[in-house]
Amino acid sequence: MAEVVKVYGPAYASCPRRVLACFIEKGIEFEIVHVDLLKGEQRNPEFLKLQPFGVAPVTQQGDYTLYESRAIIRYYSEKYKSQGTDLLGKTLEEKGLVEQWLEVEAQNYNAPAYDLVLNLLFYPKLGIPVNSDLVKESEEKLGKVLDVYEERLSKSKYLAGDFFSLADLSHLPFNHYLVNAIGKAYLIEDRKHVKAWWDDISSRPAWKKVLEL
Amino acid sequence: MAEVVKVYGPAYASCPRRVLACFIEKGIEFEIVHVDLLKGEQRNPEFLKLQPFGVAPVTQQGDYTLYESRAIIRYYSEKYKSQGTDLLGKTLEEKGLVEQWLEVEAQNYNAPAYDLVLNLLFYPKLGIPVNSDLVKESEEKLGKVLDVYEERLSKSKYLAGDFFSLADLSHLPFNHYLVNAIGKAYLIEDRKHVKAWWDDISSRPAWKKVLEL
């Protein structure tokens, strides 16, 4: 039997959630090892041995350690490709498009979404002043990215084609914050096809389980 | 015989160079379709049909179009895995580490390296004022990232292990600018193992050919 995968990180943080959503979709057994980011445990020497940049998540299965959430979801989706939801695409060409949209998420969507969530959700909690110029600029950037998604999703049900994949899954954590935590639901809801896509992917049982962890 | 792959983009730009280095390593036949970024050709309707975000590169082989340089290099390295240099790793575990370090490049290294090159190489050419605070901050960030590389490269010859891979290749374009165009060679050369790694990967015949294109 395969060894349980340890996931280091707080279950409420975006990048660990990307990994947890993948593991639940795939039916991979895991165990969360909590890392308290507010106490700075990600800077502890023991943690830095696992992840030298001091960020979560890290996974460990036996003596195989891996970090960077998008690397982890690729590796485990491939390792367990015959079980649970197929998240990679079936043909080489489908896989290429999954990679393309996963990179679009990482390179175009992630930065403005991250800056919005940081400024509007976490800075107020930490008493750090909000950078209003950056908020405005990030919202404009993200809007333009979502305009491209709207066009794409008018032609295919999911980003990489007519199948749910890592490319869609990777958007769940920050989309969730946009809609449910920082009052930016209109960025999603004002775009008909983006809204239909979000309604679909956010109602998947695996994602609902992640939110309960 | 496989169809020639069209690569849209200027051969001097960083992201197209990532693709070209991969294609030459793999012995994949390609043809460059020049896109003049300074004339804004990436905003032409014809180009936006291929790449809706208006950035280079895009590849086309037959009717299969793909964008995002790191997605392209993954797809073509897999498609042509039996020819040229193996860039993906042999086992699932090696592939996982290639993914991890490719993500480290994209998430940790790329942003500060990009900001340095933009401010110190391209802004002066375009008459845009340099953001000195950002330059200072980016150099500090990049230095910390390269400290982790130094530690890693003291234990293995390349980032993902003892084999050259996409993870190393992906650093070639910006490392080249740091060393040869913006006076930041010391960021590489002051770190013994990073320097040895750079000397090794930058002297590969495929990379030298990219610089001649």
Automatic annotation (TrEMBL), chains A, B:
GO terms for cellular component: cytoplasm. Keywords: Transferase. Residues 3-84 form the GST N-terminal domain. The keyword Transferase applies. It comes from Stephania yunnanensis. GO terms for molecular function: glutathione binding; glutathione transferase activity. Residues 91-213 form the GST C-terminal domain. It holds the Pfam family GST_N. GO terms for biological process: glutathione metabolic process; response to toxic substance. InterPro entries: Glutathione-S-Trfase_C-like (IPR010987), Glutathione-S-Trfase_C_sf (IPR036282), Glutathione_S-Trfase (IPR040079), Glutathione_S-Trfase_N (IPR004045), GST_C (IPR004046), GST_Phi_C (IPR034347), Thioredoxin-like_sf (IPR036249). The keyword Transferase applies. It catalyses: RX + glutathione = an S-substituted glutathione + a halide anion + H(+). This is glutathione transferase. Its EC number is 2.5.1.18. CDD domains: GST_C_Phi, GST_N_Phi. Belongs to the GST superfamily. Phi family.
